[in-house]
Amino acid sequence: MVFNWFRRQFAPESPEDEMPDVDESVSEVESTPKSDDSSAEADDPDTSGEAKPDYLNWAKAAFENIQQQQEAAAETPEATEPAEQPEPAEQPEEPTEQSATISEASEETHTDETEVLAEESSESSAEAEEAATPEPVMEPSEPEPPPIPEPEQTPQILSQGADAVNAEPVAEAVDFDEGFIWSAEVLAAQGRRPEDVSVEEITWLKKLRRGLGKTRQGLVNQIKAVVGQGPLNQDGVTEIETLLLQADVGVTATDRVLEALQTKLRAETLPPDEAIDYLKQLLREMLEEPYQKDYAPAITPERGTLNIWLMTGVNGAGKTTTIGKITHVAKQSGYNCLIAAADTFRAAAVEQVKVWGARSGVDVIANPGQNTDPAAVVYDAIAAAHSRESDLLLVDTAGRLQNKKNLMTELEKVRRIIDKKAPQAKVESLLVLDATLGQNGLRQAQVFSEAAQLTGVVLTKLDGTAKGGVALAVVQQLGLPIRFIGAGEGITDLRPFSSYEFVEALLSS
Which positions of the chain have pLDDT values less than 50? Predict the structure, then answer.
């Protein structure tokens, strides 16, 4: 069973069979809150006691299912180990030959016992000398291994990345804690079933919530305090506006949120919790606005055709790292991937791509020469993708704003090569943005959008000092959908974007 992260379900070969079940589960999950709302009119405290056990039972069922999966996975290697044990049974032939030698040796010992004793004494003395010699043994020469890692300074980072990949299934010791229950509530609200939940989803939601923790702690409580005072006055509007701007929401998105909140609170008074729920709905609608245009709600590689994803962005935004993480997600989802190292200008860019290709187990098409034509690399990569019947080709491009004209002409040339060499390919142009840059990152995005024909954005480094509100600013000012978000440095810390999960992690107290 392969878990497809792009479709968020197991068994990607038959997605149509599983979709009706998801819809039915959605209706079931949505029906339970309605029953709680009806009971809420009678007794508020009782409803809180009735709603939680439903999610708790769902979380417990999911936790038990994950434990069963882990036990089944742990039993498989144990079954293979005893199969290797029959080999010692073949060794009894050797003792027969050894017995003859032993008998001969015994005869010799009987004839010359004194010699044996002398040899034993000499051996014991030799052993005594050997016991004394270990002190001056040339062990100081062992410090020679340290020079070996010195030329492999980059591979040391590789080993950490490889350990991270191998540690993913091992680090699946999920605890039934608050983070697990919150993740279960988020998945259940989306219509997921307990038996379809994977360990990777739980760990990812925990990382996402942890990464947005700083923004959430400073935003939710203060908004609740302001909204709980009733209709918004000028002071309340100013305070909420300050909070949103500090969260890098941007001026355009902040004005829309304030206008909607004022209209809603003038029509009816909302308790703080209901006001937060309304804000969640509002933010989800804003993040999903690009889907109402020509953009698909999800970016998923199509099987049977070549998918080419151009990765653009400024140096330092995490572009090459994002390529390695996306290939890891795609490969684990059952897609055949290939990487084109078309950033031939930045020093060690090709080597860095090869490093991430080795981590994710994906081949890299590169030109061994220096300062080669990036379009030529893309040309060779498309030919290799066709010959290998690859599903997804990710192209690493240069990001040099100081040479903007050369960069734009280079990107345009790459697009022309793709249109000629793979006219039927499904092309996506993704811009990688460093979320820690805030509004400065948006200015960079506007420069790239002029020539790169962008179709989506990848937000990285949300686990640091980044403010989660930058996602709203990107959508509102650029009109582009967010396709992936990264909340960590590991190879598994980047996943496809979900507006529901993002808003819940941002505003759930």
Answer: 11-53, 78-171, 402
Give the per-residue pLDDT at 484. Answer: 94
Q: Does domain 307-498 have CATH number 3.40.50.300?
A: yes
CB 442 within 8 A of CB 473: yes
pLDDT for the residue numbered 29: 36
Mapped onto helix, strand or coil, the DSSP state of residue 429 is strand
Does 416 show up as a binding residue in the annotation? Answer: no
Query: Any known ligand binding at 206?
Result: no
Query: Any known ligand binding at 320?
Result: yes
Give the rounded distance of the alpha carbon of 323 from its chain centre.
11
Backbone angles phi, psi at 466, to 5 degrees: -70, 150
**334 in a known ligand binding site:** no
318 labeled part of a ligand binding site: yes
250 marked as part of a ligand binding site: no
Q: Say how far apart CA 191 and CA 197 lie, in whole Å.
A: 11
- pLDDT for 314 equals 82
Ligand-binding annotation for 59, yes or no, is no
- According to the annotation, is 456 in a ligand binding site? no
Contact by Cβ (8 Å): 496, 330: no
404 annotated as a binding-site residue = no
Q: How far apart are CA 469 and CA 161, in angstroms?
A: 29
234 contacts: CB under 8 Å, gap ≥ 6: none
Q: Which residues are bridge partners to 310 per DSSP? A: 395, 429
Q: What is the pLDDT of residue 97?
A: 42
Structure tokens at 320: 């090459």
Global pTM?
0.73
First-last CA distance in the chain:
35
Secondary structure tally for the chain: helices H, strands E: 18, 10
**Tokens 């190292």, residue?**
341
Q: Is 461 annotated as a binding residue?
A: yes
pLDDT of residue 162: 36
Domain ranges of the chain: 307-498
